[in-house]
Amino acid sequence: MAPTLSSDMTTMRRAAVVVVALASLLAGVAAAGAVTFSATNAASSTAGGKRFGRDIGVAYSRRVLSDASSFCWKTFSQPNPGSRKPVSSVTLVVEDIGGVAFTSGNGIHLSAQYVGGYSGDIKTEAAGVLYHEVTHVWQWDGQGKANGGLIEGIADYVRLKAGYAPGHWGKPGQGDRWDQGYDVTARFLDYCDSLKPGFVAQLNAKMKGGYSDDFFAQILGKNVQQLWKDYKAKYGG
Ligand SMILES: [Zn+2]
């Protein structure tokens, strides 16, 4: 009888471990602020929509929305929901539109035409685009007063740090102005963050209530024009 009892005990211990694991999982969901993520393919009858369904899919997209949100909170040093933008859901709709993608509020719109025409690994490209757009959902915009180039630069900075910088991006040190936007500003912000790790998180936090170029000097002790000169000099520009 002893072996049976031992076996039962093992089963009970395993069951207890499963219960604890489930409880931790549920607690993890609650700690994430109960944000919901959804993805819809509203262009499934088009060639691009069909490619989305075949090569990317709504299940993968939902996972990227969730992973990218967690990555934003980490990058912005916002471990608690109270410090984040009050957003309870992030949605993605694939539509028969031009361009690449855009975000309005908590809604991301991805172009099925872009998906259909892209030559290369569309799954990785879509993930990179979604990291950029998800950043727009979570970043502060200085009450609408922030420099547009900086807003796009922060979105591409998050994409860069997540490992989704495409091969065609400019290299570090390239560009004419710090607020040129996108990859140019993302690379510059990466330089600023290397001077003081957590710089981008601090900059984003300051952008909750308004905006001034002086935020760079307040955090790094040098104004943004001087930082850009130093950055260009470092790469021989
Ligand atoms: Zn953008």
TrEMBL record:
Keywords: Signal. Residues 1-31 form the signal peptide. The keyword Signal applies. InterPro entries: Uncharacterised_BSP. This is Basic secretory protease.
